[in-house]
Specification:
Radius of gyration: 17 Å
Largest sheet: 8 strands, mixed
Helix content: 25-40%
Order of helices and strands: EHHHEEHEHHEEEEHHHEEEE
Bound molecules: aspartic acid
Distance between the termini: 33 Å
Number of helices: 9
Strand order of the largest sheet: 4-3-2-6-5-1-11-12
Shape: globular
C-alpha cells in the first residue's frame, strides 16, 4: 500500500449511543468544543508532532469535557464511584499502553501513555494508578470525576448509557496512532472492563490502519473488532467495507456501536449503528467536519 506522506488526518469521536437530552440541548457548545480539539490537533500536526502525541492530546482534552463519558463527567459504577480505562497504540511498531479500572489518574489516557514504551502493555486498578503517579501523571480524588449530571442519571436508573471518547491520527510522516478513553457503562459493577482499553478489541493501530471503537463493549471484545478491521485490510479490503464488516460482527452478537478509522493513505471511515456518534474529522486542506446530533 503506497503511503501518501505529508497529508495528516485527525478524527475524534465522543461515543456511540443515543442523544441524551442535555447533550441535545448543548449540541452547539459540544460542536464548538470538538472544533477546538481539531484545531489543537491541526496545529500540533502542522508543527511536526507525531500521531501518538496528537491522539493523546485530543483524548486528554475530551476527558476534561463533562458531557463526555471519560475522565471528569464519566459514567458512574453501580456504587456511585468512577472507574476509568484507556489505551493508546502506535502504528509504526505496534507499541501499546493501556490501563483499566483506574480511580485517581486525572487523565487516564496519560496513564496509558506512560506504559507505551514499557514491557507491560496493560495495568489495572490501584497499581496502574500508582504507576501513573510515578510516571508524572497528576492524581486526583475519585470525586473529581463525579458530576451532578452523572449522579442524577445513575439515581434516575438511566442504565446502559454509553459514551467513550477516541481519536485516530495519521501524521506527516505517515505514522498512525489510536487512543480511546472511557468510564465504561453507567451502573456497571465495579471491576467490569469493556473493550476500550483492550488492544485489538476497542483500540488498534498498525502500519495500515488506526481504529477506536465505542458501543456495547462486550460484543466488541468477543469479536476482536478493531484488530478484525486490520486483518481485513491486510487481506486487501477497503477501509469502509472492513469497518462495516466489523460492526456486522458486533451486531450478530446483539451489540451496537460505532468506530472511527483512518488508513495510512488517509481514508476515513466513521460507521455507527446507534442513533448518534458525535465525531469530528480534519484532513489537511479541507475544512473541519463536525457532527454532534443526527445529521
Ligand atoms: N465501549 C465502552 C465500554 O463497553 C462504552 C462505550 O463506548 O460507550 O465500556
Amino acid at each position: 500500500m503506497g503511503v501518501d506522506r505529508g497529508k495528516p488526518v485527525l478524527v475524534v469521536h465522543a461515543g456511540a449511543g443515543v442523544l441524551s437530552p442535555d447533550l441535545g440541548e448543548r449540541t452547539a457548545e459540544t460542536g464548538a468544543f470538538l472544533i477546538d480539539v481539531l484545531d489543537r490537533g491541526r496545529s500540533m500536526l502542522e508543527g511536526g508532532d507525531d500521531a501518538v502525541a496528537v491522539a493523546v492530546c485530543a483524548v486528554s482534552m475530551m476527558e476534561s469535557f463533562e458531557l463526555f463519558n471519560a475522565g471528569h463527567g464519566a459514567a458512574l459504577c453501580s456504587d456511585g464511584t468512577v472507574e476509568l480505562s484507556a489505551a493508546v497504540m502506535r502504528g509504526s511498531d505496534c507499541a501499546a499502553g493501556a490501563v483499566a479500572g483506574v480511580r485517581s489518574a486525572k487523565h487516564p489516557i496519560r496513564a496509558a501513555l506512560s506504559l507505551l514504551d514499557e514491557y507491560q502493555v496493560l495495568m489495572v486498578g490501584e497499581s496502574a494508578d500508582q504507576h501513573a503517579v510515578r510516571a508524572g501523571v497528576e492524581p486526583c480524588p475519585n470525586e473529581f470525576f463525579v458530576t451532578a449530571r452523572q449522579r442524577a442519571r445513575l439515581e434516575a436508573g438511566a442504565g446502559g448509557d454509553r459514551g467513550t471518547v477516541g481519536a485516530v491520527c495519521l501524521d506527516r510522516r505517515g505514522s498512525l496512532a489510536a487512543a480511546t478513553s472511557t468510564g465504561g457503562v453507567r451502573g456497571q459493577p465495579p471491576g467490569r472492563v469493556g473493550d476500550s482499553p483492550l488492544i485489538g478489541a476497542g483500540t488498534w493501530a498498525d502500519g495500515n490502519v488506526a481504529v477506536s471503537c465505542t458501543g456495547d463493549g462486550e460484543a466488541f471484545i468477543r469479536t476482536g473488532a478493531a484488530r478484525y478491521i486490520a486483518a481485513l485490510i491486510g487481506e486487501g479490503k477497503d477501509l469502509q467495507s472492513a469497518s462495516d464488516a466489523a460492526l456486522r460482527g458486533v451486531a450478530a452478537l446483539g451489540g451496537r456501536g460505532g468506530l472511527i478509522a483512518v488508513s495510512a493513505t488517509g481514508e476515513v471511515a466513521t460507521p455507527f449503528t446507534t442513533e448518534v456518534m458525535p465525531r469530528a474529522i480534519w484532513k489537511v486542506g479541507e475544512p473541519p467536519r463536525v457532527t454532534v446530533g443526527t445529521p
